[in-house]
Specification:
76 residues; mainly alpha; 50% helix; elongated
């Protein structure tokens, strides 16, 4: 019996600040955050400021990367 026959490189789960913040919130707030981030009616800078006012720090670049599916969330 081989101990290593199913040895595989584990899938990397790269960090995404949007996902990290969403996972730290309760279910309702997480859904609201994701909806706002994905809503193109929210300009990046306006959403960044609105979130900052609520105590959440996400940069415009991070929001843009997530919205345009350039972050690791869409590669998993």
């Amino acid at each position: 019996m081989s101990l290593l026959k199913d040895l595989q490189l584990p899938a990397r789960k790269l960090a995404c600040a949007v996902r990290t913040v969403a996972e730290s919130l309760d279910k309702e707030d997480s859904a609201i955050l994701i909806a706002a981030v994905m809503d193109s009616n929210w300009p990046y800078s306006t959403l960044e400021r609105a979130l900052f006012d609520k105590g959440i720090t996400l940069s415009q670049g991070t929001i843009k990367r997530h919205r345009t599916k350039g972050c690791s969330c869409w590669k998993i």
